[in-house]
Amino acid sequence: MARKETAADAANPGRLKQIALTYKMTRRADKKIGLVLAAVGIVTFGVFLAIGFLIGHPIYAGILGLLLAFLATAIVFGRRAERAAFGQMEGQPGAAAAVLDNIGRGWTTTPAVAMNRNQDVVHRAVGKAGIVLVAEGNPNRVKSLLAAEKKKMNRIVADVPVHDLVVGTGEGQVELKKLRTTMLKLPRVLTGPQVTATNDRLRALGDLMSNMPLPKGPMPKGMRMPKGGGPKAR
């Protein structure tokens, strides 16, 4: 029992410290966060307390209002903290992959399925909306990456819809803070088993590519690869 209490006591300060740190980081980008949270808590508690007086049970309604005020404040704080974090991540390499990792259940994400020498990158997510290719980098350069990846997807899973999104603030692009919402709004056209089958086919492709034998050392000059399955017998 003593060990459990000690572990719980050690965990609580850690959580409080993490919340305080998150609040400080959020306040740097959202100066009104304190006023907003206070307003949400006070209004929620006040509404339930007023209802309690109207129905003749102010104590019970006040307790319920206090709990719901805490819950509403936590929800608003979480959303504004997430928005502030996305704002700080905007434009940084790998930011889209971080968003995809936290998109929620039902999605399988694979970061950096395609990349060029300029560090433009394409990530892949598979869900009930189909396959979503998310590119980040120069909007002109990522077009070729997306086109090549979509062509490959059409060869492997031709019966699965493929969407492409480019993260950015320009015209036709999706802002980082709206990436998750945009993906969740895509129409769901696949069933659970179809999503699993799609992931299995893509995973098999990855295993096949990783297990392909590569020649060790440089290829001798003048040597040509044989046509067909192997060298012809003489």
UniProtKB/TrEMBL annotation:
Keywords: Membrane, Transmembrane, Transmembrane helix. The chain crosses the membrane at residues 33-53, 59-78. Pfam families: DUF4191. Residues 210-234 are annotated as: Disordered. The keyword Transmembrane helix applies. This is DUF4191 domain-containing protein. It comes from Streptomyces coeruleorubidus. The lineage of its organism: Bacteria, Bacillati, Actinomycetota, Actinomycetes, Kitasatosporales.
